Amino acid sequence: MNKSLNPPQIPEADYEGTERILVPPKHITLAGAFEKKEHSWFIDSHVPTDLTIQVEGVAFNVHKCPLLSKCGYIGRLEFHPSHSNFGYELELENFPGGSETFELILKFCYGLPVGLNPNNIGPLRCASEFLEMTEEIQDGNLISKTESFLTLVVLSSWKDTVSVLKSCEILSPWAENLQIVRRCCDTIAWKASREKVIRDADGQEGWWFNEVATFRIDHFLRTITAIKAKSTRPEFVGKCIMHYAERWLTGMDVEFEGLRGYGLGKDDLRFSILNSSKEDGGYEYSKEQKAIIESLVSILPPQNEALPCKFLLRMLKLAMLYSASPALISELEKRAGMMLKDANVNDLLIPSYYNADQGKLANSPEECMMHDIEVVQRIVEYFLMHEQQEQQQKTAKIAVSKLLDNYLAEIAGDPNLSITKFHVLAELLPENARTCDDGLYRAIDTYLKTHPTLPEHDRRRLCRIMNCDKLSLDACMHAALNDRLPMRTIVQVLFSEQVKMRTVMQEKESPSGDSSEQHGNHSSTDAEIKNLKAELENVKMKMAELQSDYSELQHEYERIISNKQKNVSGWSLGWRKIKNSFHTKVEENETGGNQQRTNPGRRRTTSIRRSSIS
Questions:
Q1: Whether 349 contacts 257, CB under 8 Å
Q2: Where is the composition biased (Basic and acidic residues) (predicted)?
Q3: If you count Cβ atoms within 10 Å of the first and of the last residue's Cβ in the chain, which end, N or C, has fewer?
Q4: Contact status, residue 5 vs residue 22, Cβ threshold 8 Å
Q5: Strand order in 20-23's β-sheet?
């Protein structure tokens, strides 16, 4: 029986896109309609049925003749007598498209109208191949009709092609063997490579990205691979990958904001993503997430401009959470290192996971750290290697130095952070990378505040990282009154500030080229010089008194050692005198203004040389 393929008609309400109706001649229609009773389908016909076909637990009571005339596969089968009626029984296992598709096949075999649309053309094409509905059995059979509709109608429309590809997710391996998936992916890639389509996709709607993000991961990989082969812009490919990750990966929108009081929400920081995965299926869900992450990383465009650094670091966090392969994690670290100058502090706050896939917490201090320091260390090292190879401008190093100092200040509040890890991370950058050490000083001060029991030699070890000559005036004033710093560091800060003041005074006193401008600014310059001189005298007095207290402290210590006494009251007395001298000088400066103070018993008139301080 030949069936004609009519022109496109208006789709029914249940379908989207193009639809065509296969309408046979009325005089050869053998049945009126199908009737469903519980889990069985019956043909409304005056002729008794003689065959029962089971498809996914649904029984179809039909006649053998219409099926044998069109299905070569059924004609080759050996029928078994039915135990429930006088006919035969047949079970079709792994039938493409299930019972719904088989119902459409029966309608076609009985000569009833069958509507072809993008949602059912894939299952019908695979089912017709399964049943061997070829032209050798009958002209105009279902294979040729579905193939024509797929090639000439569906693949000419972008949205219809997307619908067919999504319907193929339940048709493996038939859809792969019939090249339906490949043809759909190639069609999407060809359309995506056109400039007009790319401009439309970059518009406000972004419907194309949303459609592609609904694909199964293997079909998405095939589509992106085909798009990349068409030499499409890497930014376009990167946007596709970002949309897909945001849709399928749990935790891509989680923003870690560091320590907001240790012990408050610590478990939430570690398990905010992990708990959600447990609720959605546990181990199988984690395995699926891991597969998606590894697949997406394998198709990342090599160009740096394709993906932002924030996205790469978020992918790195999830890869570590779901225990991805070390090679994949290393690849993400390298990519993030090459773009580190575009990151912010929150991007680098990578939680420290311990057996995260089993949901176990660590017990040792190293494992209980809030953040994974070693990952950031490797990322910075990759940045330095890339910077050395590419010979980037100094601005990149300056940006990374500020980022690293802010990161150090953020993690310094972790009580479990060892001084060795902090020290190694702070010394990663070369000395010329930092133009100002205020951020590094803030990080060191935060660490000392969080670890009040740190030994004196460890305090000196930390402070040696900092260059006092690169501290601003505000940082120097804060450091001079900071009792957490070692005495040697405080003296170095004061001496550095004295040198800076002297340099500024010399620049102010040097003659200028324009005499008229000198005359106009003469009064303001004199006032500034006077203020600087007064401040310099105050600094000299403070340094002299500190040197005196330091010498008395040394004599006291030597006396204790010589007498072999175990009492350390002398040390306490000496440090108390130093602390009191600091507070006394600050109060006198605030009340006395710029007036000169005279103290015949304590004042020193000699300058302190650099050698005596160091």
A1: yes
A2: 505-526
A3: C
A4: yes
A5: 4-5, 20-23, 114-116
Quick one: pLDDT at residue 557? 75
- Residue 134's nearest CA partner among 180, 80, 73, 193 is 73
Sequence letter at residue 215 = F
What whole-number distance in Å separates Cα of residue 256 and Cα of residue 353? 14
Residue percentage of the chain with pLDDT more than 90: 40
Please state, rounded to an integer, the average pLDDT across all residues of the chain.
77
Of 122, 94, 93, 95, nearest in space to 106 by CA = 95
Q: Give the count of beta carbons closer than 10 Å to the beta carbon of residue 402.
A: 19
Q: In the block, which residue shows the tokens 């191949």?
A: 129
Please, are residues 344 and 407 in contact by the beta-carbon 8 Å criterion? no
Q: Could you give the CA distance from residue 410 to residue 414 in angstroms, rounded to a whole number? A: 8
Residues in the chain: 614
pLDDT in tens, 106-129: 999 988 889 999 999 999 999 999
Residue with tokens 């459409």: 104
- 565-574 average pLDDT score: 52
Our CA angle for 311, 367, 324, nearest 5°, is: 40
Q: State the CB neighbour count (10 A cutoff) for residue 210.
A: 11
**Is pLDDT above 60 for 511?**
no
CA distance 175 to 167: 9
The residue that leads in pLDDT, 555 or 346, is 346
CA distances from 376 to 58, 105, 220, 261, 337 (A): 58, 59, 31, 22, 9
Report the alpha-carbon angle 132-138-143, nearest 5.
45
Give the H or E element holding residue 53: strand 51-55
The letter for the amino acid at 502 is: R
Tokens 């990282």 identify what position? Answer: 465
Cis before 430 (ω within 30): no
The residue with tokens 């007036």 is 595
322 and 381 in contact (C-beta within 8 Å)? no
Distance CA 175, CA 430 (A): 57
- pLDDT bin (cut points 50, 70, 90) of residue 62 is confident
The secondary element (H helix, E strand) that includes residue 207 is helix 207-212
For residue 42, the SS3 value is strand
pLDDT of residue 525 exceeding 70, the answer is no
Q: Model confidence over 512-524: pLDDT tens digits?
A: 544 444 444 455 5
With CA atoms as reference, report the closest residue to 580 among 569, 590, 572, 570.
Answer: 572
Nearest to residue 439, comparing CAs of 480, 398, 488? 398
pLDDT at res. 161: 93
How far is CA 474 from its chain centroid? 37
Res. 12: pLDDT tops 50: no
Strand 114-116 to strand 20-23: parallel, antiparallel, or no bridges (unpaired)? Answer: antiparallel
Residue 59 φ then ψ, to 5°: -100, 130
* 373-390 and 419-426 helices, crossing angle to 10°: 20
Ramachandran bin of 383, using left for φ above 0, alpha for ψ from -120 to 50, beta for the remaining angles: alpha
Count of helix runs (H) and strand runs (E) in the chain? 28, 9
How confident is the model at residue 513, as a pLDDT?
A: 46
Which tokens in the block code for residue 241? 């990958």
